[in-house]
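Continuing the batch. This is chain 6 of the set; chains 1 through 5 are on the previous pages. Same settings as before, nothing changed between runs. Recording input and output for traceability.
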Amino acid sequence: MTATNRTFASDNWSGVHPDVLAAIVEANIDHAPSYGSDPVTARAVQLFKEHFGNDAEVFIAFNGTGANVVGLQSLLRPFEAIICADTAHINVDECGAPERFLGSKLISVATPDGKLTPDLVEAAAGGVGDEHHVQPRVVSITQSTEVGTTYRVEEVANLADWAHRRGMWLHLDGARLSNAAAFLGVGLGAFGSAAGVDVLSYGGTKNGAMGGEAVVSFLPQNQSALRYIRKQSMQLASKMRFISAQFIALLSDDLWNRNASHANGMAKRLGTGVSAVAGVRLAYPVEANGVFAVIPPGVTEVLQTRHPFYVWDEATGVVRWMTSFDTSAEDVDALVASVEQSMGAVR
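Output for chain 6:
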């Protein structure tokens, strides 16, 4: 890939890390049992346990939406509701999949920075015990958030404590959990049962995988029906070893951290660069691999012809630039130069 065809549209646009490709090729030897009964998947599950603890149950899945729906279904009945930030992926970018397939209502909460707090959740958790209201059952958070901010470990623990004292569960959408952990300088397991999380989805696709996610549950096995839910939800891969192999690469030799740290570093470089341009304002702190900035619509249109990216909020002019494990300093500096040039042209 050359600098001219790398973009800042999404970390989903990036390629596959060479080590991940090599792991897939290595798994492509002879025959192996299907549906996860293979030694490659067994090794991947063991690596998850090394990171998240032996109380973790691991269920490999195809994609992030599927992992979220499967994980949430293990915690809910149809008359129960999920409280989430209004910017949450399950609320905005999953085409109503949680509501359709779970039959559960999403209660979205406006936040200043993409993060829920016990006070915000408390205000949304009404109608408990009233048969005319859906019953709040799950608090779902995203780490890192959809606006690139991160929950500190103690913030997650506080939400878990709030939920558990009310007989509720805490779910974590970890599509970019690696980026959050790398930014905070903690291990992945810091956001597992140690922080009170009950079920999480762990994302590989945005961090150098070809395509693979996992549902990680910390519920006692006798309280979880995830093995059946995954199958019924069409997330059980027959040749699972090729998905599992990707996690062996990511979770071995600190690759997840190196990929995420690089992407985060490029986002920090980009945020620092564009914020120094007159007329550009960062909308949120840069704490993972996303940069959100306010620029004039005319500048956005010009820039998108050179460096594809998405408009986050048309009403406010906020745009989103995402960096990846393969984003280079030259890519970042080229975008910063284009922003400076384009802003100069409109002044």
